[in-house]
Amino acid sequence: MTDLERISGGDDIALVDLVDRLIGGGVVVGGDIVLSLAGVDLVYLGLRLVLAPAHEVDVAALGNSVSRR
Amino acid sequence: MLYAIVPSSAGLSALRTEELHVHDDGELAVFFEHRAGPPARTMKEVLSFGRTLQQIWARTSLLPIQFGTELDDEDELAGLLSEHRHEWLSRLGRVCERSELIVHLPKATVGPEHPPASADSGRDYLTAIAERVRTEDRLVDELRELLAPFAEDERALPAVEGPRRTFLVPDRHVEAARAAIAGWVDRAGLDEVRVTGPWPPFSFCGEVVP
Amino acid sequence: MTSNGDSVLHAYGVVEGAGAGDLPLTGIGQTPVRLVEVGDLSIIVGDLPPSEYGEAAWAEHAQDPAWLEPVARGHHDVLQTLVEDADVLPLRLPGIYPDEQTLSDAFTSAHDDLIERLCFVSGHREWSVHVFLESEDTGEPETATPASGRDYLLMRKQQVEQKGSSQQERQVLAIEVYEGLNRTSRASVVNLVQDRALSGRTEPMLLNSAHLVARDEEQDFLAVAVDLDHYVGATGGLRVEVSGPWPPYNFTHVSDEPRMDGGGP
Fold it and tell me: In whole angstroms, how far apart are CA C209 and each of B21, C83, C153?
């Protein structure tokens, strides 16, 4: 196995891991000011839209003429 | 640097800015900006890129292009469009004039799963878990059947409290789909089911297998 | 109790034991962090400007990942630092209170539940486990992966007789990883596998689980993980990745069903 990651804070934590925990986990005390369900969904949708292009689209499909770094 | 592929339309010019340009060939259009060099691959740059995508999404469906993709000039861009026209029109066709509806289902269980104290109770433990899973899945199955006339695709989303499921629904069916869910909730007494949306179908763009 | 119109209280987490005063930590937006005493609990809070972090700001900005990201990291960093040495119950985002009175009232009414949850996690930390398929040999469609993490457990029951496709064998291996680590944990949860578009990983994820592990058993847990990684790697081309320790975000829910510990459901 690759060295076990010891996450101790900092930018090495993936945003998705944070959001899954901070929005989907943790305890809620006092309901006055919380994210609405729509708000929660928007957080995930926004995140998906934003992160997907950073990772996903198959660049090989764009052809050999593309110069990429 | 490229941002997104969108269907050609008159309204796209409203999205043009000083930095953001559109190349439109009548069928497909691509948003891009001129850059001196590649963007730094930092979270900040990625999120800024994403913000631009969100602004485009507010107006039109799109296929997001991988962050940092660069071409030399618009001729190259035109070549790319003609080479991939069919594929991209097809992918856009799957999300155009469609929205997603997200359904929050009630939790079938509360609290963490406690590990069994002994091998025997392990079997009971798995049985009980399986029972809870079946309860949850039964609801999802009912929901899927209910929306079968309306939904073209579905995905599971990370749970927040209970399970979430998203359905890709043509815009013209959204009201009927919502009504179907409302009827189901009434009949079955499912107070905890909630629906959000319709949203631009973020969950369904970009995952078409080419 | 102070009521300060110039700031809202952002609550990060809860610790046991009465205490008040500043903590040597930096929170969201580089602001100070302090404790507010509520009975025999202490709440970790920050005083934040309402225009930037109050209710209206959340309503406007929460779905903007560029806004949310530093807030999430700031919230998490406080808890991460504390969990190095102390037991802390993380609060979900956003935990905003207009003043200390409201905060105190809310936490007073939740007191018994909070004590129960703190007891449950006391002496433990969360560890995150992902199992990946190292390489896609056949390009099988993703729908073959169970849509819900909980499906694994159902499949386990149903899979006794099943042999056959390497896909199913890999699922069984993923379940074995879960079960092996579950045995060294106080509690475990299986979550939905992460969307590739969000995680940035190209390899398929077969398991996304979280485990609550006693501080003094962490080395055992990690040793089991290493063994499982070797086993599933050799048998099925899978890889086990562990990250942690985390504050116990996945173990904060109040349980209102009977415990299943040996005595049956």
Answer: 44, 20, 12
